[in-house]
């Protein structure tokens, strides 16, 4: 297909990422030079933590990033840190995250104890890590704990640790568990420190996870560049739909410059149709473009959870915030230039606790939760 577009205003882009398997689209784009046909080159910039991704996006040291969906909204709303106008250009993947507990706790659950019984049996608040205060992992962890009958802010001590430190902290006994992305669950399990007890696709099936994020002024100043970057990442996500390509990129991700983890630990949970476990839905990167559309309703869901847990008390127009962050028009222009149709805005999902979210009435949805801040 011949793609007729305006030339990008910027041709060399620095993209931030954290060492996670779902950084695969960025790795594919850089290693296969997929930006060439769209007029851009990509430089990968590995970051030690999500806080570093945030800070370098805001300072302009990186142009865009593989980022937690909830990180973008946390910065937009100024929760617990600097506030800036942010943009979600597209979704990079669905699913692919998990919750791992220490071996004794996981064994107790496997032998029939409920999550609540196992954690209460410790006789102290369990220490469970997530990766960023407003990030996806914090929200998945809180939702899972609440659905299990535990208050995530009172019954559990939640701490923030960068993903690559999770397995080490579990081995050292500093944690009772963690919620993060792969391959760190596979690493913890291989080291005998813990076992995966839940997958985030069990909490919200086919949930949005990482996004392609930038400051909003970057997208406004360089719209052709932003569209070129979206087209490049759509190419990368489509390439990842091939099972053989998942195996190939798993080996590439193993390099010290990317994840620095053996490919044998990356591949099973990235390439297997069920992520290596029948309980899990696979990591999805493209699915004909259905993965990548930046639905406003997804952003609205994060705002409901911030309000649920007392992170956001200001009266804001949540719908207006989400509509300003999620760059639907820009995404549609980029996708349609490649012949990729945009799906509908509404997408109903049934969560682990039986509640249904479709973005239709956020206030009623929020009011329905018995366990809140």
TrEMBL record:
Pfam families: NMT1_2. It is found in: Endomembrane system. Keywords: Cell inner membrane, Cell membrane, Membrane, Signal, Transport. It comes from the Bacteria. SUPFAM superfamilies: Periplasmic binding protein-like II. GO terms for cellular component: endomembrane system. The keyword Transferase does not apply. This is ABC-type nitrate/sulfonate/bicarbonate transporter, periplasmic ligand binding protein.
